[in-house]
TrEMBL record:
Taxonomic lineage of the native organism: Eukaryota, Viridiplantae, Streptophyta, Embryophyta, Tracheophyta
Membrane topology, from the record: Lipid-anchor; GPI-anchor
Residues covered by region (Disordered): 210-231
Protein name stated in the entry: Fasciclin-like arabinogalactan protein 7
Function noted in UniProt: May be a cell surface adhesion protein.
DNA damage in keyword set: no
Length: 256
């Protein structure tokens, strides 16, 4: 009789322990998966060239010749994307007046198309692109560019104009826009009277931001810490187990 009573008490304690243990973990809310980022919208070239840099003259010619629509369609509706070399307003002011005004509309349109490649190229792609020179531009045919990449310093040679990529305005697939300090002109339009080369100013040195994370000096990786809630649950479970064992031992001694 005493053995049966002892067995019943121990069984009840085991069931009670299991119920408490399950309540410690089952009640925890599931970890929600991160919400996927929304798809990027199309880049509006008018807004980009209007506010991202001094490209107002370039934008004016793009709109006047409707080349802007061609570039926008290439960026939005093709898998290839587009790479645009945008001359600054100062680049146009360097040209002798009335330099572009003497050209017909088709020639101006060809010059603008000459400032784009019908494929998206990031800055890291120019190393391979330089080995493929001359590269056919959006103007196609004899309108080609030669690229040189020396440790990330990208030079562009049109055989009439030499310039460098001075900054990256935007470089997110499917569109890349790079700032240049000279208007790219082509021998197919202006003949063989090549102007003297303008040596571009060296690129300014950009100091690292103060917000840049500093590497661990010791080189050791900090081990991940367990969450406070997990430690609390483990501690409560250990105390509960010891309490049940103590009660069971007392019952055994009582009936022995």
């Amino acid at each position: 009789m005493e053995s049966k009573l002892l067995f019943m008490i121990i069984s009840m304690l085991v069931v009670w322990c299991s119920t408490l243990v399950n309540s410690q973990f089952v009640g925890s809310p599931p970890i929600s998966s991160p919400t996927p980022a929304p798809a990027l919208e199309h880049v509006n070239l008018i807004q980009l060239l209007s506010y991202a840099g001094p490209f107002h003259t370039f934008l004016k010619y793009l709109e006047k010749t409707k080349v802007l629509e061609t570039f926008q369609d290439q960026a939005n509706n093709t898998e290839e994307g587009i790479t645009i070399f945008a001359p600054t307003d100062d680049a146009f002011s360097k040209l002798k007046n009335p330099f572009l005004s003497n050209l017909i509309d088709d020639q101006i349109k060809s010059i603008l198309l000459f400032h784009a490649l019908s494929h998206y190229y990031s800055l890291s792609d120019f190393k391979n692109l330089s080995q493929m020179s001359p590269v056919i531009t959006y103007a196609s045919g004899q309108y080609t560019l030669n690229f040189t990449d020396v440790s990330g310093d990208i030079s562009i040679d049109s055989r009439w104009t030499k310039t460098k990529v001075s900054s990256s305005v935007v470089a997110t697939d499917p569109i890349a826009v790079y700032e240049i300090k000279n208007v790219l002109l082509q021998k197919a339009i202006f003949g063989t009277d090549i102007p003297p080369t303008v040596v571009p100013a060296p690129a300014p040195h950009i100091a690292p931001s103060a917000d840049t994370p500093v590497a661990n000096v010791g080189g050791s990786n900090s081990s991940p810490k367990s969450s406070p809630s997990s430690s609390c649950k483990i501690s409560n479970l250990a105390i509960l187990t010891q309490l049940i064992l103590a009660i069971a031992s007392g019952v055994v001694l009582m009936f022995s």
